[in-house]
Amino acid sequence: MAEAGSPIVVGFDGSPDSVGALDWALAEARLRGAPVTVCHVDQPSAGREPGTQDGAAGTRDDAQALAARADAVLAESRRRAARLAADVEVRSEPAVGDAAEILVQAAHGAELLVVGARGAGAGQGRLLGRVSAHVAQHARCPVVVVRDGAVRLRDSAANRGRIVAGVDGPADRGKVLSFAIQEAARRGGTVHVVHALDEAVLQAAPYAGESELHRLHQAAQEAFSAQLAPHAGQHPDVAVSVKLIRGGPGPALVEASADADLLVLGARGQDPIGTALLGSTDQTVLYHAACPLVIVHDER
């Protein structure tokens, strides 16, 4: 669990998505009263690490080029931060190596790790976009994946403070709802829960008419809402609504994200995100959600 004063760590490589990630991190830092650590990770030329003996002059040139590029990228992030959130404390951390591992390590003890959905591209040695799935799985803190377009969509609309929570099984409910409700409370907003209906409930009545199916659906929704009540009690002022759906939840989550500030999902096991929620629909949610995606882990 992050301690008071823990930073929000954001990966930044100058790509449009990482700019969106930085903007989101700065806005979130204002809400939380937290500092921001901007982490730029670069890698040396393919096949050679800094300090190897493949030509001392070449190694020095590589190191100097990497340092110069890191300085330029981080200077860009500082200028943007000063313009958008001068009241937020911002630190810079350049690094060279494997972006996925370095970002995971940098996020130890952080409140959040924020990354762009896609980075500047491996061709230039900047791997941020490629590692978003890795950090989503391995980071100890919640991970926020931001698309530049999603941030612009939110900036162009009224800030509704609406948080969408995709809830799968019982293991998801506590961590996802707790995060979603706290975020809604910070924004003076609401939480909209999307949950895939247990098909076994309907298969038990294969010949039921429309009225009976409606009754079963209503009963399932009431039962699920009752299960959520203890979590909703954390912030009684935050309104929580529930939508039960049939079939794969991907399209419903994308639709619900259209007027949301955040889409919150839970991570379980070796799959970065719960199989019933993302599994085969992870690309749909990640690349089509109209708001930033938050992946919440169990405390560890």
TrEMBL record:
Pfam annotation, one family: Usp
SUPFAM superfamilies: Adenine nucleotide alpha hydrolases-like (SSF52402)
Top-rank lineage group of the source organism: Bacteria
Residue span, UspA domain: 7-147, 161-297
InterPro entries xrefs: Rossmann-like_a/b/a_fold, Universal_stress_UspA, UspA
Family listed: Belongs to the universal stress protein A family.
Protein name (record): Universal stress protein
Record organism: Actinocrinis puniceicyclus
Taxon lineage: Bacteria, Bacillati, Actinomycetota, Actinomycetes, Catenulisporales
